[in-house]
């Protein structure tokens, strides 16, 4: 089909209106293309599927409660909306991610964090019922933790689950050296978000929300903190705010009080690291699962992002090995030492000694290896693993005597 790119754009914008008649015509177009055996039919069908999924993710009572139960002046945000810009630099103050373009997957998190999120989503998706009972849902959430733990991805996933656009603003990008400009940028950002049904995501939150009594901060920053607090208060009842920070210790106590939900995202534990590694390697067979376990073991102290990077390096090394026979532990040992400053040097040392590594992995309580898995990652037979473990037991017995 000629000019399919333009047709797709027209269909995408039209479907965003939510008009059933428009959707019917788009379905007719897809059916006609399919009948003509036109490969572009699948592109139109994907657009129809995406808008259908986003509609299902946002129950009608949720949208109604945001638009009528709280802020009656809010509008539905459509693609092409003009984003506010910095008056001096003309740089946009935010990026908008619409549900149909939001590809954020739920990050691997500890069970306790997952339970908290489930409760939060339950409130948001039953907004109207709470209002009818005279209760307000928790619309402000501060997500904090080390870099690379999935905070931004989680915020986008939450917006996707609500079926709402995410207005993502990096607060460090709103700061200006010109007197009064930062406060004006904040005002413009919140005025924009308050006009529409959306989730406001404030990334790098500590860039502005610092301690007002910090002697190292100038008076302008203290005034900006006050402006931020006032804007958060003014948005109450208008929509969701999600703040993200790597440096929670820098936040003003008054900022903490503005967020009803305060969610810590810790570094991934052994189970989470194993799940991350399995996903990154697309592990399905015995060998790749064993390699995922070794990657999870050596990456203690890594963030999820660092572990994904390590797994990507490992996959690339496998592809480029050209059939070279090398035990997985040798490659992983080399890559781990150059991937993160958080690499446990003791574990890298253990990786360099096969006998020590066999004993350490076989007796590890967090990530359990079978003898066959150990044989694969060490590049030896299961008989060799058994012999090494027997030698270890005999050596320990002799030492005890």
TrEMBL record:
Pfam families cross-referenced by the UniProt entry: AAA (PF00004)
Cited Gene3D superfamilies: 1.10.8.60, P-loop containing nucleotide triphosphate hydrolases
GO molecular function ontology, one term from the record: ATP hydrolysis activity
SMART domains: AAA
Residue intervals of the AAA+ ATPase domain: 137-269
CDD domains according to UniProt: RecA-like_protease (cd19481)
Top-rank taxon, per record: Bacteria
Protein name (database record): AAA family ATPase
């Amino acid at each position: 089909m000629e000019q399919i790119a333009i047709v797709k754009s027209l269909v995408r914008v039209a479907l965003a209106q939510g008009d059933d008649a428009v959707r019917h015509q788009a379905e007719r177009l897809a059916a006609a293309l399919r009948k003509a055996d036109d490969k572009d039919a699948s592109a139109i069908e994907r657009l129809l599927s995406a808008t259908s999924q986003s509609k299902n993710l946002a129950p009608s009572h949720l949208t109604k409660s945001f638009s009528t139960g709280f802020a009656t002046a809010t509008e539905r945000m459509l693609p092409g909306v003009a984003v506010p810009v910095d008056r001096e630099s003309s740089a946009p103050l935010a990026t908008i991610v619409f549900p149909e373009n939001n590809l954020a997957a739920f990050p691997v998190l500890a069970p306790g964090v997952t339970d908290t999120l489930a409760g939060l989503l339950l409130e948001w998706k039953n907004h109207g019922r709470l209002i009818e009972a005279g209760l307000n849902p928790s619309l402000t959430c501060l997500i904090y933790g080390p870099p690379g733990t999935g905070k931004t991805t989680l915020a986008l996933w939450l917006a996707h689950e609500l079926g709402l656009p995410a207005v993502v603003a990096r607060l460090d990008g709103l700061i200006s050296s010109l007197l009064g400009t930062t406060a004006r940028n904040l005002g413009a950002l919140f005025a924009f978000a308050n006009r529409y049904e959306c989730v406001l995501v404030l990334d790098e939150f500590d860039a502005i929300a610092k301690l007002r009594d910090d002697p190292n901060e100038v008076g302008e920053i203290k005034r900006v903190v006050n402006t931020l607090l006032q804007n958060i208060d003014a948005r109450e009842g208008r929509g969701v705010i999600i703040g993200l920070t790597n440096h929670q210790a820098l936040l003003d106590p008054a900022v903490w009080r503005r967020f009803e939900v305060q969610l810590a995202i810790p570094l991934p534990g052994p189970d989470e690291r194993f799940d991350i590694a399995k996903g990154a390697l697309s592990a399905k067979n015995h060998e790749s699962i064993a390699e995922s376990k070794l990657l999870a073991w050596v990456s203690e102290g890594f963030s999820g992002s660092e572990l994904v990077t390590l797994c990507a390096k490992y996959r690339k090394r496998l592809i480029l090995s050209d059939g070279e026979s090398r035990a997985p532990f040798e490659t992983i040992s080399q890559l781990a030492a150059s991937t993160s400053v958080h690499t446990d040097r003791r574990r890298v040392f253990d990786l360099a000694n096969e006998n020590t590594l066999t004993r350490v992995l076989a007796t590890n309580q967090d990530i359990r290896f079978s003898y066959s898995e150990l044989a694969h990652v060490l590049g030896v037979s299961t008989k060799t693993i058994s012999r090494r473990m027997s030698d270890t037991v005999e050596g320990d017995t002799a030492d005890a005597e």
